């Protein structure tokens, strides 16, 4: 099936659209909870056993590596298997991995299991993003994908909060995570008749997408860079500025609340204004706000507000990117574009900790905000030079879905 034939699919009924949205929200929510729970859970278990910190970090990075390596193959799998069968298979894979982790119970055995977990997450991210872009009307696309991003952020934030409830010993936390994943399966099956048909070979690959839409690619990589650096090094940075570890963790949670709360407003703005300028506004905020950290770290309310706005607007880069590609592409081409975003986010999230950590080694605590502000500045300069809002539509793009 070609992209044009996919675009010509009959419009969704109101019930079909609601079922699709419920399935998408459920799938991305449980993925967010699973990742938010298992990433710190496994690290805590290994740390309690006295595992070397570098080995813990490498073990955690395995899932991100899988996210990057699997992304180019997901469009082909969707074309061959169909969207819902692939997503159901990915959910079942995640459940199997979660149940296998306490059985294997060995850091070296966890490497391949976490790689499989990352592959499943990659399929679910790309599948849900393509599906939400397919059903979103262009007049409300920003708000729709903003809701999607907010739910994902909420799941990631809720995951760690479940650790005190289920503990870190034995099978209990893994069984809880598997049960949470299973909740999405009935909704996904119910929505299967309304799922888009995305079969067919896209006219370009991930690398060509980056050349077609370099500013969107740069925005997603910048978000991944900021996200990765913050999760890895924001707490140590704040401890170095005089906060207790507990207070630093609380401030990180406040930033996560911003990523939840600001996505729908940013999406609303992207619906009311040209989307590329909104993306550049987000980039400008990411240039300026990190520079406030040294001045606000001594006053908790100001620090919390800075992190709330900064991390919320940084996540907005991804929200606006989803809105732009959902407007420009359809069918299997849209799946390829979503796969590119997932891979670029993964690359950025791997670069971010190294960049910020190297800057902190060189410039002490000041290196953290300088590195992230500098990366945002490079994105802005490149965007202003490329001026994508003045370019004609890309040669291979197809129009937005009319469903």
The helix content is over 70%
Just name the CATH architecture: Up-down Bundle
Task: Figure out the total of helices.
Answer: 19
Give the end-to-end Cα distance, rounded to a whole number of Å. 18 Å
Total DSSP E strands: 0
Question: Under CATH, the topology is which?
Answer: Growth Hormone, Chain: A
Average pLDDT value? 85
- Classified in CATH, the superfamily is MFS general substrate transporter like domains
Element-by-element helix/strand order: HHHHHHHHHHHHHHHHHHH
> Roughly how many Å is the radius of gyration?
20 Å
CATH hierarchy, class: Mainly Alpha
Number of domains: 1
Structural class: mainly alpha
Poorly predicted segments: 1-9, 392-403
Topology summary:
Layout: H1 3-7, H2 14-48, H3 53-70, H4 74-81, H5 83-104, H6 107-135, H7 141-161, H8 163-166, H9 172-182, H10 184-191, H11 206-212, H12 214-240, H13 245-261, H14 263-272, H15 275-288, H16 293-296, H17 300-328, H18 331-363, H19 367-386
Helix pairs in contact: 2-3, 2-6, 2-7, 2-9, 2-10, 3-6, 3-18, 4-5, 4-18, 5-6, 5-9, 5-10, 6-17, 6-18, 7-13, 7-14, 7-17, 11-12, 11-18, 12-13, 12-17, 12-18, 12-19, 13-17, 14-15, 14-17, 15-17, 15-19, 17-18, 18-19
